């Protein structure tokens, strides 16, 4: 069985598991360690070291890591929702230093989106699939005929003069105590703008709140089909492992 290992770095937890690369399923338990309050690159790399050590990940196994920021040639150009010390960091060099492993670092939404297309809700869907993750921020993945166009940052498109994720993320819903109905008006604006700009074939909506998709997806009026993610909090880990393995 082709196996990889994925680590997903989020705002509250850092999670790692072995992944069956054929199915995207976890092999064994997922290990979760709280994200350090001061989420510097070094503190996060130390947690990754603990996870890799505790799980006994072999050095030659494909190992993927997600972070909530774009990652271009292993470098983080900017970061919105973790410690600002990540900007300018070479993640591969950092992880190599802490863990001894060659780690493939990818954007969290790209990993989740790739997993949905390869193993989940958008499996075998041709054309342009846009996967959005609604969480503290808004993450996006653009996948055209199964090929990922990495590092789209469409949670930061400007709508009515405002950064979209500062209006429509589920973090904002929670902070402002918006009802699903109130929040759905903001989502409507976001997804119709995306629809106008990209003419996608399918939207997939992930992030923790997608568990409650019945409460907000039916309120949206779009021409493009919009469906909940299937892999939910498994997606980042599975996608990171798949991208690291190049499958
Ligand atoms: C970041 C993205 C990330 C998204 C979800 C945004 O603020 O800029 O890189 O994918 O949040 O975590």
Features:
247 residues, alpha/beta, Nucleotidyltransferase, domain 5, 2 domains, 7 helices, 12 strands, 31% helix, 25% strand, binds beta-D-glucopyranose
The name of the CATH superfamily of the largest domain reads ATPase, nucleotide binding domain
Tell me roughly what share of residues is in helical segments: 25-40%
Strand order of the largest sheet: 3-2-1-4-5
**N-to-C order of helices and strands:** EEEHEHEHEEEEEHHHEEH
Rg, alpha carbons: 17 Å
Bound molecules: beta-D-glucopyranose
How many runs of DSSP E, i.e. beta strands? 12
Shape: globular
Distance between the termini: 13 Å
CATH class of the largest domain equals Alpha Beta
User: Per DSSP, what share of the residues sits in E-state strands of 2 or more residues?
Assistant: 25-35%
Give the name of the CATH architecture of the largest domain.
2-Layer Sandwich
Describe the structure.
InterPro entries: ATPase_NBD, ROK. 31% of the residues lie in helices and 25% in strands. By secondary structure, it is α/β, with parallel strands linked by helices. It folds into two domains: 3-109 and 235-245, ATPase, nucleotide binding domain (Nucleotidyltransferase, domain 5, 2-Layer Sandwich), CATH 3.30.420; 124-229, 2-Layer Sandwich (Nucleotidyltransferase, domain 5), CATH 3.30.420. The strands form three sheets. The protein has a five-stranded mixed beta sheet, sandwiched between helices. A five-stranded mixed beta sheet has the order 8-7-6-11-12, covered by helices on one side. A hairpin with a 2-residue loop joins strand 7 (138-144) and strand 8. 47% of the residues are buried.
């Amino acid at each position: 069985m082709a196996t990889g290992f994925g680590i997903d770095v989020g705002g509250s937890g850092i999670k790692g598991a072995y992944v069956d690369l054929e199915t995207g399923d976890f092999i064994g338990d997922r290990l979760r360690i709280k994200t350090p309050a001061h989420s510097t690159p070094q503190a996060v790399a130390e947690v990754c070291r603990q996870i890799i050590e505790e799980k006994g990940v072999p050095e030659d196994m494909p190992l993927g890591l997600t972070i909530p920021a774009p990652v271009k040639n292993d470098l983080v150009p900017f970061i919105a929702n973790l410690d600002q010390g990540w900007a300018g960091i070479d993640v591969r060099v950092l992880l190599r230093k802490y863990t001894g492993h060659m780690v493939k670092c990818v954007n969290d939404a790209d990993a989740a989106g790739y997993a949905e297309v390869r193993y989940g809700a958008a499996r075998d869907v041709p054309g342009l699939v846009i996967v959005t993750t609604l969480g503290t921020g808004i993450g996006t993945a653009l996948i055209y005929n199964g090929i990922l166009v990495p590092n789209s940052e469409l949670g930061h498109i400007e709508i009515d003069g405002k950064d979209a994720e500062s209006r429509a993320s589920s973090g904002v819903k929670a902070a402002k105590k918006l009802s699903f109905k109130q929040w759905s008006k903001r989502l409507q604006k976001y997804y119709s703008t995306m629809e106008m700009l990209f003419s996608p074939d399918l939207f997939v909506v992930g992030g923790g709140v997608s568990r409650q998709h019945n409460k907000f997806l039916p309120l949206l009026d779009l021409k493009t089909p919009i469906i909940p993610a299937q892999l939910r909090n498994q997606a980042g880990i599975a996608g990171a492992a798949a991208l690291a393995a190049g499958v």
